[in-house]
Amino acid sequence: SLAVLQALEDGLKKADADPSVKAVMICGDNGKFSAGADIRGFSSPKRQGIPLGPIVSLIESSEKPVVAAIEGVALGGGLEVALGCHYRVAHVKARMGLPEVTIGLLPGAEGTQRLPRLIGVPAALDMITTGKHIPATEALKLGLVDEIVEENTIEAAVRLANKV
């Protein structure tokens, strides 16, 4: 939603400007990272606010480490947000993917560029062109996530952020 995008932008800019902040952790709410964009908003004649692509670039360009704590799902724009992060920790039951192709859309926030850089062209093409969701265990094998945990994902992401 536009409110989430604005909160991400504001939070990242505030964290980057605050010398007491050493790292940033991005998580979802209620056990879900993000299922991506609300497609109902695509039909709005005037979308106000910042688009997702520049937010993901803002995450990626942060001088402070940014860690994604992925619980539940990271799909579409949600996965693109995670791809912009420097590190990704996922709960063992999490699933990731770019399903928008199944409704005739291509990932629009540079996921088609970031995913191949991270996991290689063959695996990325498979995910991008099929809309396939992958479990955290496969994401770890591919290099999409840095760590999978069975415990509290947010605590694990904070530990990783403190370590890096």
UniProtKB/TrEMBL annotation:
CDD domains (UniProt xref): crotonase-like (cd06558)
GO cellular component, one term: peroxisome
UniProt xrefs under SUPFAM superfamilies: ClpP/crotonase (SSF52096)
Keywords: Isomerase, Lyase, Multifunctional enzyme
GO molecular function: (3S)-3-hydroxyacyl-CoA dehydrogenase (NAD+) activity; delta(3)-delta(2)-enoyl-CoA isomerase activity; enoyl-CoA hydratase activity
Catalytic activity reported: a 4-saturated-(3S)-3-hydroxyacyl-CoA = a (3E)-enoyl-CoA + H2O; a (3E)-enoyl-CoA = a 4-saturated (2E)-enoyl-CoA; (3E)-hexenoyl-CoA = (2E)-hexenoyl-CoA; (3E,5Z)-tetradecadienoyl-CoA = (2E,5Z)-tetradecadienoyl-CoA
InterPro entries: ClpP/crotonase-like_dom_sf, Enoyl-CoA_hyd/isom_CS, Enoyl-CoA_hydra/iso
Stored PROSITE patterns: ENOYL_COA_HYDRATASE (PS00166)
Any GO BP: fatty acid beta-oxidation
Pfam family name, one: ECH_1
Superkingdom of the organism of origin: Eukaryota
Family per similarity comment: In the C-terminal section; belongs to the 3-hydroxyacyl-CoA dehydrogenase family. Belongs to the enoyl-CoA hydratase/isomerase family.
Protein name as it appears in the record: Peroxisomal bifunctional enzyme
Organism: Aegithalos caudatus
UniProt gene name: Ehhadh_0
